[in-house]
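Example pasted here:
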Amino acid sequence: MPKTWQPHQSNQFARQLELGRTYYYVNTHDTKHNPYEDRHTYGEIVFTGHLPFTKNPCTEHGQSAATFCLNFGPIHEAPPRGMRNLDGPAPQVAGPVPPGYSAKLDSAELLALQASVARGSDPHTRPGSGGKPKKRSWF
């Protein structure tokens, strides 16, 4: 059974971890502003070296293992069940659509999209920009 370290076990985690091994932690997301996002996902972290003065295990960017466990714990040896990786694709991208839904763009929609891209690529012709910018003086 995979081991889990709680935040109060941060020093024990720092002593027991293996350098180069991937460990997992749980992220909690706000579903009020992102109603179609998963409430919990997991992230991965790898400890690759030791800090210079304390010799505590750390990540490639200098995050101490004990501090990471305190701030983001619990830390798991295996990916938590029933959660997707934060790096993975979300279950839905644009909103609620029924399973198996597929739509094809017709030629009018494609032409409108191409015109929109063409208009949006020039900053002087974008709607609301008022044409060419005025020359500004320093005084």
User: Anything to note?
Assistant: DSSP finds three helices and six strands in the chain. The chain has a mean pLDDT of 83. Strands lie at 4-5, 22-28, 40-50, 57-59, 75-76, 84-85. Residues 125 and 138 are 26 Å apart (CA to CA).
